[in-house]
Amino acid sequence: MFKRVFSMSCWILFFIAVDGQDSHKTTRGVLRDAAKVLKVLIPVGVSAALVLWLFHKVDFAEIRTVVRQGVDYRYIFLMMAITVLSHVIRGIRWGIQLRAAGIPRIPVIAESVSIWGAYALNLLFPFLGEAWRCVYISRRESCKLSTVVGTDIGDRASDGLMIGLLILLMVAVARPEFDSFLDRYPVGEAVDRLISNGDLWLGLFLFTILLIGLDRIFRKKPLVHSFNASVRRIWSGFSVLFHMKGTGLYILLTLGIWTCYYLETYVCFFAFPFTRTLLENDMGLVAGLVVFVFGSCSMIVPSNGGLGPWNIAVMFALGLFGISQSDGAAYSLVCWSFQAVVLIASGVFSAFYIMFSRRRHKR
Question: Residue 119 and residue 130: Cα distance in Å, rounded?
Fold first, then answer.
């Protein structure tokens, strides 16, 4: 029953954003629909394949034993509360960018709903949530969608910068574990080869030069001109990061978001007997950083809310500190499942909030 309510709420969120649009089945429309289907099927396939691999690699009898007997759920509930707090902070931070882009101030609850709804939709279809929250704000405030998209890109660019800084910090304080990952796992070896592949970086540089050249040649064509106009609006939304008011608060909120994210991983160390042993060494801060960074990097893989890639990345990271695959799988599955409960509940709340707020506005 709860699953049905969640699914209905997610579809309500989606249709609220796109209602009023006509669809014409031209050849281009069919191709576009096929591309949309592939965007859904590929991430779902990735998640399914990695979950099957996970089932093959671990002993689920041991995982059931851990879940039934070895979990202190007080810390799991604390992690869930921190997750909600991180989303509220993210909504407030995005509000600063929106106001800098010329969009009127919106209530904190609406800012939070834009994040809660986005994360809930990402559980069903990867990256759909990002598109939805931009459409939601654009329709709610009657502003240019491309400007809102620009602020969303700036929002994610800030996250990318933070992940880069955290990777550097991890390499500095946990170099032995990082080197062990590069040497011990095929994924680590592939990452090492990718980073050191000069041909790849040269090819990316030449491809960029080619795109710039084609843009200069065909910039007067209507399609290219329209595309460039949209890019300029996106850039205007993104560039507010460099000249907006409240930059200090924006940086403080960014640190708050990523501190919450780190604590979500670290707090769960107290919930399991095998991860509590990691707390004996430097209070488990380094181990928490490594697990957190590995999990964050896995989110670049398209999947449903991180299911599959995040679990395996966390298993790899815990394995670097001597945690068995079954115990690592138990940790990742419990943490992911209870975070998903938070996203489901907040997504349902967001759907009802939007419906009631629209009814109130009509009255």
Answer: 8
| Phi, psi of 268, deg, nearest 5 | -70, -15
Counting every residue written for the chain, the total comes to 363
- The letter for the amino acid at 205 is F
Query: pLDDT, tens digit, for every residue of 244-264?
Result: 788 889 999 999 999 999 999
Q: Which residue has the higher pLDDT, 66 or 50?
A: 66
Q: How far is CA 65 from CA 272, 294, 327, in A?
A: 12, 26, 10
Distance CA 40, CA 296 (A): 21
| CA diameter of the chain | 68
**Neighbouring residues of 174: CB distance < 8 A, sequence distance ≥ 6:** 286, 289, 290
Report if pTM > 0.90. Answer: no
**Comparing C-alpha atoms, which of 361, 310, 354 is closest to residue 112?**
354
The b/e string for 97-113 (b: 16+ C-beta within 10 A; e otherwise) is bbbbbebeebeeebbbb
Write the pLDDT tens digit of every residue in 182-232: 676 565 556 666 666 677 778 888 888 887 787 778 777 777 777 777 677
Is residue 56 predicted with pLDDT exceeding 70?
no
For residue 199, give both structure tokens: 């041909």
Residue 91 has pLDDT above 80, yes or no: yes
Between CA 78 and CA 64 the distance in angstroms is 22
Which has the higher per-residue pLDDT, 22 or 132? 132
Every domain of the chain and the residues it spans: 44-362
* Axis crossing angle, helix 325-362 with helix 73-100, rounded to the nearest 10: 50
Across 52-59, average pLDDT: 58
How far apart (Å, rounded) are the C-alpha atoms in residues 103 and 146? Answer: 12
